[in-house]
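anyone seen this seq b4? input:
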Amino acid sequence: MPTDLCFKKTQAIIYKNMKKHLLLILAICATTYSFAIKVYINPGHGSWGPNDRPMPTVSCPNLSSTGRPDTIGFYESNTNLWKGFALEEKLLAAGFGVKMSRRASGPYPYTSANATYNKDLSVICSEAENYGADYYISIHSNAGPEGELGGTSGKFANYPVILWRGYTSKPGVTNSDKMAKACATRLYEIFWATPKTPDGGGGPEPTTYYSPSNPRILGDLDFYNTTSTYGYLGALKHDIPGYLSEGYFHTYSPARHRALNPDWCRQEGIRYYRGIMDYYGKAGEKVGYIMGYIRSKTEKFSHANYIPYTGSNDEYKPINGAQVYLKNASGDTIKTDCYHYVKRMRTNQKYYLTDNNYNGVFVYDNLTPGTYTISIKANGYQEYNGTLTVTADKTIYPEIFLTPGSGATDPDPDPTPDPDPTPDPDPTPDPDPTPDPDPTPDPEQPGDGNEDDDEGGVTTTAIIEVGADKNPTGSEYSLPTTDYIKYSISQQVYTEEDLGGNLGAIHSVAFKLANNVGATTRQYEVYIKYINRNNMIGGFEPVTAADKVFDGNVEISGYKDTWVTIPFSHAFNYTGGNFVLFVYDKTGVAESSNYHLFYMFEPGGEKRSYFSTSSFAYDVNNLPVNYGSATLAFKNHVNQVRFEMETKAVVKVSPETVDLGEAMLGGYWSEEKPYEVSVKAVATTIKDIKVDNDFFVLPENIDYTANPVVVEVAYNENAQVDGEVNGNLVIYYEDTTMLVPMTANAYTPATGEVYEIAKKVVMTGSKYSDTPEFAGLHDNYLLPGEAQGAVTPDAVYTFELPDTSLLLARVEGINAKMAIYKEDFNGNGGPSNDNDFKGNVEVKSEFFFDFNEDVLNGWTVKAYNNTVNNWELTKNGGVDGTNGIISYSFRTNVQPNYFVADNVIVTEKVYSITENSKLSFDAMCDVLGEGTIDHVKVEVSKDGETMTFIEEITPTSGVFTNYVVDLGAKFAELGLEYGDYHIVLHHKEESKFYVCVDNIRLSNPSDAKTRGESDVNEIYAVEYPAGKYYVVVAAEGEFTFELQVIDSENLPATPANVVATTIDEFSIELTWEAAENATSYNIYRNDEFVANVTELTYIDEKLNQNSDYCYVVRAFNGIMESVASEKACAKTLKLTLTPPTEIFAEATSTSTIVLTWSKVEKAAGYKVYWGEEIVDIVADTTYTVEGLTAGTEYCYTVSSVNKTIESFDKSDFACATTMNIIPAVPANVKVEATSSTSVKVSWDEAENAKRYYIYSADTLVAKTSYTYYNIVGLTPNTEYCFTVTAVNGDVESEESAEACGKTEPEGIVEIASSLNVYPNPVNDKLYIETQTQTLTVEIYDVYGRQQDNKTTRQQGSVVVDVTGLNSGVYFVKVVTENGEVVKRFIKK
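predicted toks r here
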């Protein structure tokens, strides 16, 4: 989902520091307090959907894709949670027990998976009751059409309200009203505060309906003008005293802009805390708070998403990016934490920085009471200075108005130089100038160039200008942004060389305007991160919120040759290397013809930058690596820029420690090269480099004029030491030294460890076997196939062959390696990874080229279309910024231009291709548009001229991927003979772009097979001529080496005509011809032993579907195996599964549902889903889901699976509702007459009952949630009988025992005609006139509940005060000396 102006950030990042404190508080409270008072906090809502009150703001407007802001925009879910966290933090610290209904906000749409943060209100109420809470608070903000944008804009402001369950005069839960009123006293103080506006009146939070005399604190039934047996609001339908608070009106747009600042929301949480402390009579905090508002004194501000209340302070422009400094009476600067979502959480800052959300809010927490001086600086405004007085347990709400004028944000609050620069009046030198007898400076350890000032090094602030000496031009509108289009992005790579070797903290970047056009304001995001390449060939470099250093408005003057400076929200600590500068113009408005140009230059190298434009916003934090291959425009330019950097004199050493590893003594041959150390000086000079242990050796001549200074560290091969040796590289600069630790592990080889003293092979009966003592071995040589840096200790053997012989050489051990070398090592001096001898094969079968020698040695390039276009070396364009090769099919930056590629690169030598040969390489391409992907054809050639196609590779766009071509299998598939061939890469395309290749390897591994847990590496039945040889064997653990001269007459013949045939999705059949001297046959699948058989056929079963398998067969005679047969390959069929049908769900209890479905052919199991959540994977066609909630509907689907294959579709939904808990039967049912026409039925509360049904015979008379009911309209002096059932959801208990009662006699009718009740309907007073004496008057509502009433007598009438009754229907029961009568009346 694209992001317009909002910076995507989760609440976890904003509050990660707060939550760390909360965990500590929880730990303390758990051991200190018994939680005598428990508070349940419900931060309302929980997701980012349409029901979570999304509203647009200036900085976070509605997205076109959803009609809502991005998730960091205004949602009640976010703001309510911030308030709840602050309240929780304070309560825990005060010893309260606290439980919150949620601790995070989550995605929309609402699903079962997000139930933890989007709970049903009934679940919240139950959870609060189960917690045993003493105090309940549901936190919200108010909304309504009065504050919406539209025709009433500017006429209404905040509308706070606090509601409890029930009526204002009669709360549904005792003490709820008292809690709410205590809360309101504290919560509403923000509306009572009345600082002056520039015009002399108003307050920081204007309100419409609220006033101190009309605080809007009432019951929910009164607020919503309704009646109910259990309140109106779902969040309050429980029996815990408490309330729901709407702290402000978020449909009043300035208020919701303030709510985007978490510090502002936290203050509301703190005000709730004060109200709770007041209610329980606990002492308040000993600290105070400041929450202020900074506005322009004269400038007014409005926007489609920001409409202020007419005549309020909100009409004056809130100031973004203001720095607020606070000092106490002692002059100490007060550090602060800013929980800005835009700038992440800024902790321990020397000033509070107002955010970019148009609220001007600043907050200082936990202040000692007293007087403070405040200073405010903001670009374009005069500096403000004043004083504020802080009181304990209170927040003050100053509004500060800045006067427009000259002034700029000062990153250092106290840069004033010493006011007394007069030199010391007594310059007489020290009479004892004798130097310190030990002037050696304190040595430093190597640093990263990013130490604090007090850790050494003199800090200076400098402007580092890049590109001024490179003839910058300003003729294009691409970098850093393109305001000709609504939205644009760019990424540029800057190197350490570009910055002149300067290191330090970068605080800003500036771009130089190259044309004269009108001034404008654009909205930018700027990101910086390190990058391991010096170009953008690898594609888009992903960024995250942690890389963002700016988000806000950028003022562009429009005057040529002026600098547009962007100050960073936090410094980028640059310690060397390359970094990418990413700029996103998210304004969303095109400047048409008034677009701006910025100076650029060519730093050298290809594709140092790219840019992209769009009519739609970018979701910059979620762009993939290969993003925009069709829309990115690569450039060889970068912007001329200025970086503001804090630099200091430092020395950067790479690596920071020197570890020579195993240092072999004795002067034996070794490929080990001296250890290279780079010493870079920043703002200083390297004077000397030495070692403090003569075991380590430096070159005689070191070039100290170079920067960095590069030295090679070797060791004394004739030293008389053993074991670990330590020392330091001592670097002298300025008046100090730096020590670089050095270490080595010295040893003298024993017999069998190096080839000069190799262990001699003495065969017994043509066989030799040896298991050397592994603990005494060292890793002296790099063998073929052994990775650089791998630790595989070696053993070296030597043997001589008097005649040409067949050899079997074998090593068994973990990751075993082995290589045989001629006596002269092919002139290489000793054993290595590329000079082993594979027997009587004149042609090599392996090679590796990484192109890092800057030349194309070993290859020939040719362009069939006779253009200058061809394969060429690309420096730093390979994997991880190394060298590679590249071929273009579209190129316009050379002369002449060309748009066709028909290029081959061919090995100069031929190489042996066998059944085991594999060719691998890393490749990537780039594209100019859809369908413009370059390909690479792999070919072979006998003569280097005529090519045979093998396979075509389609590289991924923008990122290197490794590709492997199984030449052995492809030769068999194409019917080609194994033998000697040139290897060819062919690029033939037209008007596409380019392809890069790196790390080309031809491998021909020895036959290896795994038996048990040990690796076996062997050379089998290979002919070696007479002569002397060395064998080097290695492994990662203990190993055994065997060597045998084979009698060719005992060797079985190789099986011929091996054929692999597919049977089905899981099995392949092999057949072959009988081999001479064979008694059985060994089968190998993909080089792994699988079976020994005596027949000439074998069926390999339980394979994976749609998979390739290759086999070889070796004949076996009980003693030896033959050479492997040719490979035979086949592919299993593709498995397609259908979903189960006839799926049924049946509830079997209050917590279980049984699912059944039909069996699916070839399915090995089934996945059971609840929504998208996998419930379980089972083998049977039935499953019981357990642990469910009673009375709840659940729906499930099922898919078919077999290993990794799953049916594309799932089954139909099967739904069932778990049984409700059966409530107990009501007991102690009673029927009592209440008049001649009514009776009251009552009973005891039944366990698990939610409601009750009342029956007369089989007729349902009434339903109620109470344990009594008044039944009216009956016949006088008549007996009525009733039964009662308890109900829980859909489950109803058995009927109670029948209870009977008789209505009063109808004598009351005799006085009815003489009884007059008026007026009806009534407003305040109800008059009752009768000729007989009135004894009592009672009033009931329609549910039979008696109401409070006050009666007086007035001139023979009884007067009933009904002012406190809500509107509705009521009954008045009048008891006289002659009987009683009931009359109906209506309260207005």
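The chain is about 10% helix and 40% strand. The mean pLDDT is 82. kinda curious what u guys think
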